[in-house]
Amino acid sequence: MNRLELTGLTAGPAQVWGGVRLVPLVRRAPVEGLRLHREVYEGLGAGIVELGPRERYLSYIPHGLVADWSGEEDGRGAGRQSAAYGTQFGGGDVPRTVPLPPVPHHRMAKRRPGDRLRFLPLHLALEGYLALHFGGPSTAWEEWSRTALRDGLTPRAEDAYLGRSVRGLADALRIFEIHPGQCGVMVYVSDALAAAFVVAHPDDYRVLHASLVEDLYGELVHQYALYGAPVAAPVVRIGGAEHIRDLGALRSAARAQERAWAEAHDTLFARELLDTSYAFERVYRMKSFTLWRFLPPFVRDGGGQHIGETITDHKGQVAYLKTFRLSDAQIRRGHLLRTVAGADWELDRAAAALGSSREELVRRMRAAGFSALLRSSL
Amino acid sequence: MNTPDSRAHSPADLVAAEDVLLFVNAAITATGQREFRSRAVDQQLSLDFLHTYVRVNYRRVYAASLALDINHHNAALIVRRLLETAGEASPEERRTEGRLIAARLAALPPQRVYRLFGELRRAKVNNRRTRAIMRDWLAARPDLGHDAVKYRAGLKTAARHIHLPCPEGGGPLAEVGAFLFRPGRLRRYEHGTLDAWRRAHYEQGALAELPFTVAEGFAAQHGMKREVFLKRAAPRMTRLERLRTREQRVMGERRPDADLTVMPLTRLALYVLSLGFEQRAERRAELTGALRAAARRAAGAHAGSWGRVHAVLDDSFSSSGSGQKRRRPLAVALACHHLLEVLAAPGAYRGSWTSGARDALLVRPWGPTPLGMRILDALEPGADGAAPDRLVIVSDGWDNAPSGLAGEVLRVWRRRLDPARRTAVVHVNPVYDAEGFDVRRLAAEAATAGIRDAEDLPALVEIARFAEGRSGPAELYAYLDRQVARFSGAGAAS
What we know:
A: 378 residues, alpha+beta, nine-stranded antiparallel sheet, four-stranded antiparallel sheet, B: mainly alpha, two-stranded antiparallel ribbon, 6% strand
């Protein structure tokens, strides 16, 4: 598996507000057997995640998602709880308040009692990106600093922006008119794909729609929203009006316009997300569903590169998806690390692979913020 | 009015006529409150600009719009601006304005007028004319004692501002003066309401004689139970207070007395939408009956005169309005639905909701706005196989599935399928667009008019005629003149 498959999802007509364009993704039938619930944590989003016995990770965590795959396969009920968390009506045994688990969280993806899995949205993906080639050089080349040899790549930190600080996003989400059967949305800022979000069931989407404003967005998205001009609303134009002789013809012309938009979206707007081949890493397996994180190839072709996480069913169809657009600097760092690791951390070979000189590579490493890896005499 | 005699319209006339229609649309829809898509401050800024623009450039039109069905907020704003800038008007204009202002103040709810008087005081507008207008209005109030209790601060400000003589000694005005300016001096009042107010401080029984809003405060002080208080206060409530408290006054199975059939149509629609689905379904006969009765009353002489009417009604998520105007656009659509049913020839009405809802009583603001497809549905011939005579679209002008399709459908349909204009298309829009200084339009082919209360629909369709561009500025000004004559005549007579 190296591609994202958005089969079963059709792009609806976009809604534009200022510089933000939201494209709804509509499913004809919800994916059976998987529901997502939202858990809200105390501490206004500041959270500690314990990765292992001694590794910790501090980040903004507004909420977690609980995937519930206890639904029956025959399609009668998706999930034991048939409504998303927070929307259920219920008897006396339904908890009225949201349980606040004590911080720190243990692990990114953690099994909960029953057929449930809690994971922290986007953090899986971000961690996957941050820990890229975490181990450091496998061979002790003399150019590498002592710390690099001893500890490998020290934990990196990346900046991300909260959805609230992306100008216009909160308003756009508030006035967005959710389609019936909508299971996802593509967020464009200044017509650059900023994020994609897909869930399995429309009811879950309705509850989680507002949570997009609490998500993390890359630096690029923030800048585009701040400095970008309002984007143009898509203009529908019924051409060939002289051939329309009755209402039926007019209706089919109007339908054609609707279809044209969906096709244009998939081939024009979402191309960079759908046509890229990703490196998938399996995080968790639950019955026929698999939770993955994926990394882009880090090629520098000028297009957007997305990291993210996804849950797919046995056919590879996406049931859940959340992506994060990397900025150019982030892509550059990923590209450098990948090249250097590919050359077994040998600077000369890496420089040759990049088609540049050794000095140039050192300069680039330092410019990318990896100076701690290199010996100071270089 | 600035009526040009020539039939050929000069560009300046056309621009003027467009500006007038723009202002009328804004004055009908905008209330300076938050809307679904714009904040209150945007609305106020936008409205402020428009008022200044029209007042400076078309002062006579500005005053004349008082005679149209504009909303109370804008009426008060116009009166205030006219009085503030009286120096810019000629003596003859001032006389017309005076008559219009007096007629409009008589039609405004008293709390609005008192608020306006307070604003005039804060703006330090205190010329002889303003004082005379305020004095006349106060003199025409049926019971100043009642006003003194219910609008105490307002009346006090107004009386101070115009130096209303409240002599000591006998007479009702003397008691009001004593009540407002020398409280606690008189041992008892001759006036019933004033005395009830005095007694209400220590006697729960006196609450029943006070206006409802005043009694509410005393009841809280006395720690009265809400149900007991509402039961006792019911006879003194106004029509709207009765409607507002109706659900609180339900005792078990017994429904309170409020007569739904006498309520205005749009208010009633708002009330219906405030109920849950189960309640609406349970009381279907009662609610539908009340809505139909109100619609019949609102239609009046126009009933049954519109021929075959097809309507597209917007119940998308944006029709939920805002926290300040909760469900207003949807209520207007629901009210229009019932009104159009009455206006159309019997059995010749068909309404389609954008969400595809079939049951008008159970509508809710939900989903996107596929207006283009719904317009196509509405253009289909009716049961008798004939095209509709009128197509009415009630929508906030945002068409997003996909956006702009409604305009394209209307354009192609008008050009290719109905060039003879057999079907009149009217778009009524309950939402003021702060950015565009107007209500949003769907297409050049459809006349657009702002709407606040569905009851005004027949009158608005007349204005929309001018927006379509088929009647020129001359007719528009003649229409305004007629309205002014009718309004100030009616104001003078009453």
